[in-house]
Amino acid sequence: MSPLLSVQGVTKRFGGLVAVADVTFDIAPGELVGLIGPNGSGKTTLLNIMSGHLSSEQGTIRLDGEPCTGLKPQRLARRGLMRMFQLTRIFARMNVLDNLLVGGRALGLDAEEANARANALLEELQIAHVRHLDAGQLSGGQMKLLEFGCCFMRTPRLALLDEPFAAIHPTMKEIMSRFIRARHAEGQTFVLVSHDMPVIVELCPRSICMNAGRVLSDGATSQVLAAPAVIEAYLGGAAA
Amino acid sequence: MLTGALAADLAVNGLVTGLFYGLMAIGLALIFGVLRIVNFAHGEFYMVGAYAYTIVAARLGVPLVVALPTAFLFGAALGWVVERTLMRPLYANIGTWGLMRDEYAVIVTFGLSLLLVNLVDKAIGPYAFRAPALVNASRIVVGPALMSGQKVAAAVVTLATLALIALFLRFSYWGRAVRAVSQNRLGASLAGIDATAVSSLVFSLAGGLAGLAGALLSPIINASPDVGAFPAIKSYVIVVLGGMGSIPGAFIASLLLGLVESFGAVLVSYQYRDTFGLVLLILFLLFRPQGLFGERGREV
Amino acid sequence: MSGDVRLRREFIATVVLLVLLALLPLVTRDVYWLGVLVVSAYFAILASSWNLLAGFTGQFSLAPAAFAMIGAYGAALSAAYYNVPPLLGLLIGTASAGLIGLVLGRIVMRLRGPYLALTTLSFAEIARLVASNSINITRGDLGLPIEAWFNDRVIWFYVFLGALAFVVCGLYLLLRSQAGLFLEAIRDDEIAAARSGVRIVFWKTAAFAISSAAAGFAGALYAYFASLVTPELGLVQQTGLVVSMSVIGGMGSLIGPVVGAFLVYVTSEWLRDVGGWQLVIFAALVIVFARLFRTGLWGLITTALPPRRRAAGKPA
Hints:
heterotrimer; B: mainly alpha; two-stranded antiparallel sheet; C: mainly alpha; two-stranded antiparallel ribbon; 1% strand; disordered C terminus
């Protein structure tokens, strides 16, 4: 089967700093891949390049065989590439339901479909009771769930989740994990960036570890986490 | 035709005009550097200074040497009050604007501008006031150019003030604090600098400088309620051209603008001499938003 | 969807307000006051168009008066030099403002906050200076005279009220559709909007074009009313009035600018006889409202009313 996402030789420099160095990997349809690595390893930069927020100096990215390097985020969204941000981004002055409807309508759903889908998502994510509140009035965890939900108004081809579990209540973490597992079982492809190792181990059969802009290790999560290079990257030389 | 003598004359006049623009624009650049907003009421600080000087000198008969600093103080006081009452929501997370701080700043300073213009118009009157000149010679030779005594005196005072500001920013504790907060507000406060105090300082200083500019030019451009509108627009152009927040940039851009307008009025069009700056502003904001000396900002 | 409910409530309130205003000529036929109401309606259209751009899309343009001026000159120039009938002149005025707005909107797409404000301000000043200096064509500050369309103040009052109703209805239909969702999303977080698939370039430019066209429409209509077009229409002070009216009435609501326009202008004319401090008071109000009541008068009124469906929303 041809890969859903193909990243080839992507490189990005900021002045003298090489943030992403010659990164190459493929992701097959239906995979749930963890993207891990210490702070500053280039994970978010790579994600920004994949979602069209940054340009890369070299390399190509293909989604379903079609090149998509350099396309703007809104075009990538319409092609089915949904991105969740590390620092939660929602529409603060619109109510929760409208927040979801934006994505639905922008991606071509009509009013009824969008409404139905939004309400279903709200139920599944257990935030239906705040649907009429302005998004800016939600708690931090609820906002994360909302942003998470916004990525699924139309079934994405690829969902890029940037630290979705950071700083939220365990109950909400559980809701999100359950959601991800359920969709994954249906064949949804995910790339999940996280520092939360237990979650990575629990959810992701495969992991890619980055450090200093390079791919250190790519394979089954248990093996990646046991690799000496990865341990060294996280804990420093002494622990290996 | 552009003879050498004419060119020299235009150059000197342009540079002197640029100096005056600079006195006002530096304050605006400081405000932008520290608070990251454009103060749309900047022209009114100029106006307040012009009125303060005129009234104190002409009506109260105070010696001019005292009247000038008074104008500076009036402008500074106004700046301080404005910062304390209206600018806090920008960084103290109070008020209901939340993320829309830029929009709040535009509206509030716009409203302030309207308030001050109309207040002065009603309280003092819409007619222009003539202020006494610092030096009563009408024609002094400055190199290749001929200028009024007032202009020469004003230029000297301006140069002295600008030099003082430069020294202040470079060597004094508060000057360095200002530069630190411009570069990184959070970092500066982590290093122990009171960022809010710096904001107050900068707004007062900007008000004072603009007020001083208004006072210095009031014998030439008489004080009237809307006298500040014109210099304000020049300041916006300069701050953009120099690079938002860059003080040296603002200074150089002021001189440049003075020269461009001076030569442009003769070589291109006298009627449209005020549009050169505006066109430059638009072009810079579109193609080189960091100006000549500013830094590129990041988004995501 | 309670965002929809909120919009519908504002629309109904606006309609009620307009109906009440329409009844005024039954009470007074005073030519002066009818004139005041006409100008208020002009500002209401202008403020509503600016509100679409600034309140709903988050693009703080300082050029609304300039676009009104462009619309006015579009109509006046075609009337004066080509003798076009008023309806066609209106169309030309509206279209020229809309087209220039489209181009400007596309150019300033990437600019935000103070940068956008400065650029639009510069554009407005340049436009005004061009109008003022093109004495051969526009007669500069002397003004360009054209024939009035109607001569009866009462008729003019209803024409302007009808135009205002037309603009408000148009805005309501626009904001009720998915366009409303997209524009507000762009205002709240452009990056999140892009991530959601919203066509940023299209909608930002469209908002600019529609807002400018509406402003031009108001200006063109005003040209036929005042029968004289001068560059003073495009002064920054006029933009200041428009911004003040929207802020006091309530930015980001359909009715706010309309309420603000009538309130500010009628009161300022009323107080003109009394003392003339009205502009000072209004400027102070703008500051107070900006500082303390972002949602303006309309926001104050609606928060004072008993909440219909707040926290635990059960859909009706």
